[in-house]
Design brief:
Length: 214
């Protein structure tokens, strides 16, 4: 079944928000969005309402919509909660993960290595997300996976650029390699620990360089 126009535009704007196309607190003008995404103002209104439900946009009466801007404490809280939920998901999934899934994670990790080696960071966030999604997709606790995806989306526009911070390229590869090694051994406790370390490392980077992101 083909996606509706509202769904298509919703996904396009959400992706642009997460990529940092729009700045925190930036005002969103319906007519400009309608022109940019080649759709009607009515569709844009529907999309903005959906984005508000995802905590990506705030809508105020008589003032319109704008991109949500989180305070540093909000971001830290979201990342710390994500770390605990994702740790739980990894601990639950890793003991029964299939070799094909591990191979897919290995292939993604190799792409991450290649991209960073060649200073090609455009698709890093996408690869990073795909790496983690393999584990999420195998978890039978939908409440947990829905929650962790929601938490990630709310801070995506902030951590999208962390890969450009000095030293972060090397760190993210080490962190994902540690996760992959634990998953490959089907060591659920170690995998849970390693994924938490990775997310807390992202948190610490954002705290250290908050003047760049906020």
């Amino acid at each position: 079944m083909a996606e509706s126009k509202t769904t298509l535009v919703f996904n396009q704007i959400k992706e642009d928000i997460n990529k940092g196309v729009y700045s925190p607190n930036e005002k969103l003008v319906e007519t400009e969005l309608a022109s940019r995404y080649e759709t009607s103002r009515n569709t844009i209104r529907n999309v903005l309402s959906l984005l508000e439900k995802d905590n990506l946009v705030s809508i105020e009466p008589h003032k319109g919509a704008k991109i949500v801007s989180l305070k540093l404490k909000d971001i830290v809280d979201l990342l710390e909660l994500r770390a605990e939920v994702e740790g739980y998901i990894f601990k639950k999934v890793v003991p029964t993960i299939l070799q094909d899934d591990i191979k897919e994670m290995e292939d993604i990790f190799k792409q991450m290595q290649s991209n960073i080696k060649n200073n090609q960071f455009t698709h890093h966030a996408e690869l990073n997300n795909s790496f983690h999604e393999i584990i999420y997709s195998k978890c039978d606790n939908k409440l947990a996976t829905d929650l962790v995806r929601s938490l990630k989306e709310q801070v995506a526009k902030y951590n999208f650029k962390t890969i450009l911070i000095p030293g972060r390229q090397e760190a993210t590869l080490i962190e994902h390699q540690n996760i992959l090694e634990a998953v490959s051994k089907k060591d659920e406790a170690q995998a849970s620990l390693r994924v938490k370390e990775h997310i807390y490392s992202v948190r610490d980077t954002l705290i250290k360089y908050d003047n760049i992101f906020l």
